[in-house]
């Protein structure tokens, strides 16, 4: 995880990152999304998942790709990302994960306190 923080710090210094937060059934999630780079820092905390943090990005078809380290951590903890969708008005991100055989849907609200304004020429995640 020592590599994740410097990489994400470099991204946040050069880019506009929008943070989304939410929780359900004891699982808290936070996503720091850089639309231009199509990269996100994902954090999950809670009893069923422990603390998990890592980088993810969007593939050509809009599917979510996890870093090798995050994918390995998810596999060990039996976590799988089923879907990620953002509301058209960009106010929420919906994340559906499978944790130890249970499906959890989290609605993450944009954290406007972190300067949640969108970059002026941001592309769409759905492209």
Explain what this protein looks like in three dimensions:
The structure is a single chain. With 127 residues, the chain is α+β, with helices and mostly antiparallel strands. It has one domain (4-114): Porin. The protein is built from 2 helices and 8 strands; from the N terminus they run αβββββαβββ. The protein has helices spanning 4-14, 68-76, and strands spanning 18-24, 27-34, 39-46, 50-58, 64-66, 79-86, 92-99, 102-110. It has an 8-stranded antiparallel beta sheet with strand order 5-4-3-2-1-8-7-6, sandwiched between helices. Strand 1 (18-24) and strand 2 (27-34) form a beta hairpin. The longest helix has 11 residues, at 4-14. It is globular and about 30 Å long. 24% of the residues are buried. The model is unreliable at 115-127 (pLDDT under 50).
Low-pLDDT runs of 5+ residues are 115-127
CATH secondary-structure class:
Mainly Beta
Count of the separate structural domains:
1
Count of alpha and pi helical runs: 2
Binned, the helix content reads: 10-25%
CATH architect. name:
Beta Barrel
Q: Biggest sheet, strands in spatial order?
A: 5-4-3-2-1-8-7-6
Question: Could you give a short account of the major beta sheet?
Answer: 8 strands, antiparallel
Q: Which descriptor suits the 3D outline?
A: globular
Rounded Rg: 14 Å
In terms of structural class, how would the helical and strand content be classed?
Answer: alpha+beta
CATH topology-level name:
Porin
Q: State the end-to-end distance.
A: 30 Å
DSSP strand content: over 45%
Mean pLDDT: 79
């Amino acid at each position: 995880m020592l590599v994740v923080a410097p990489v994400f710090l470099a991204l946040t210094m050069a880019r506009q990152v929008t943070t989304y937060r939410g929780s359900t059934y004891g699982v808290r999630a936070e996503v720091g999304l850089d639309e231009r780079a199509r990269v996100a820092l994902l954090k999950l905390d809670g009893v069923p998942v422990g603390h998990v943090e890592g980088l993810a990005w969007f593939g050509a078809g809009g599917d979510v790709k996890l870093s090798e380290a995050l994918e390995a951590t998810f596999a060990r903890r039996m976590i799988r990302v089923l879907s990620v969708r953002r509301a058209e008005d960009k106010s929420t991100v919906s994340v559906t994960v499978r944790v130890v055989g249970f499906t959890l849907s989290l609605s993450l609200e944009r954290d406007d306190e972190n300067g949640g304004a969108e970059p002026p020429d941001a592309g769409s995640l759905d492209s």
